[in-house]
Amino acid sequence: MDAIDLHDVTKTYRGGVHALRGVALRVGAGEIFGLLGPNGAGKSTLVKIMMTVVRPTTATGTILGQPVGSHDVLERVGYLPEHHRFPAYLTGRQVIDFFGALCKVPRDVRRTRTEQLLELVGMRDWGDRRVTTYSKGMQQRIGIAAALVNDPQLVVLDEPTDGVDPVGRRDIRDVLVRLRGEGRSVMVNSHLLSEVEMVADRVAIMNKGQVIAQGTIDELTHASHRYEIEASGGPERLDLPGGPVAAEPPAPGAAPGARTYCVRTREARDVQPAIDALRAAGATIVRVTPARETLEDLFVRSVVDERGRALPGAAR
Ligand code: ADP
């Protein structure tokens, strides 16, 4: 059973803003899913519909097997909203306990779980300090722990690494991977595309209220798969059975005098004729690297408007 399986989700806000125009989205059980898109694409609206905070204009499909809009399913969902604020007089430990109480987790279960969660997010030594003394990264860690207090099957995290330093970001990535290892599904919304790329099994890119791309990063970047051969002393052009391959302008960091030849394939065997031709021409092969478009390349390419300019916020 999919964790999220939504179809035909539309939302027109009062005043006539078409925030969602027929969204279909699938998140498999036990996967980390990245929901991406420039500001105003409709991501928050979609998440709020899933959390029953916003009423959709139309929506069909299920969350953890229950019809979207059902409140009961939220018992099994954890949610970290963007820009969350905790009551200033609470300690980190109390925040987790408080959210547990809101979710009706029994007191004794809450007590053990709070300790486990403080450990999971690396905050055990800080649990008795007030949240106002925390750095942004520590607040995010406590927010993630609070989102997990009801032992959810689906966790929805909005910008979990916002304002977090590189070490903290890696810790948070490790937490996401651990949650997946426990069989939970994780939906993460982030502008840090290189981070999403490191952990997400599948992604959806939204723009102007629609999903414009959805799948594994490998599937979505399929056409860009290539091998780059760096060689010194090679010709400007290789004539191969599959067609000519021209040397590219030197890449940053390339060895002096080396040229790069790009063979568009994902199969290593298709690269061998190019290597043979280079060696026959007396060239020295320096490096052969499989490459593909990054998630950031894919994102920027997907959200470029008709005039060929990236939309505001696209490359943040
Ligand atoms: P994202 O989360 O991708 O930045 P949002 O879902 O917040 O996108 O917004 C999508 C569109 O809906 C934007 O044009 C936004 O201005 C509009 N919008 C969001 N919330 C409301 C609201 N409560 N009332 C009217 N329009 C809204």
Got a strand count? 15
Mean pLDDT: 92
Question: Which regions have little confidence, pLDDT < 50, spanning 5+ residues?
Answer: none
Measured as a percent range, the helix fraction is 25-40%
What hetero molecules are in the model?
A: adenosine-5'-diphosphate
Mass-distribution shape: elongated
What sequence of helices (H) and strands (E) makes up the elements?
EEEHEEEHHHEHEHEEHEEEEHEH
- N-C termini distance: 34 Å
CATH architecture of the largest domain: 3-Layer(aba) Sandwich
Number of helices in the DSSP assignment: 9
| Class based on secondary structure composition and strand pairing | alpha/beta
Q: Into which percentage range does the β-strand content fall? A: 25-35%
Order of strands across the biggest sheet?
Answer: 6-7-8-3-9-10
For the record, the count of structural domains works out to: 2
Biggest pleated sheet:
6 strands, mixed
Radius of gyration: 24 Å
Fold and architecture overview:
With 316 residues, this protein is α/β, with parallel strands linked by helices. Helix content is 28%, strand content 28%. The strands form three sheets. Strands 6-7-8-3-9-10 form a six-stranded mixed sheet, sandwiched between helices. The chain has a five-stranded antiparallel sheet with strand order 12-13-14-11-15, with helices on one face. Helix 2 crosses helix 3 and helix 2 (92-102) runs parallel beside helix 4.
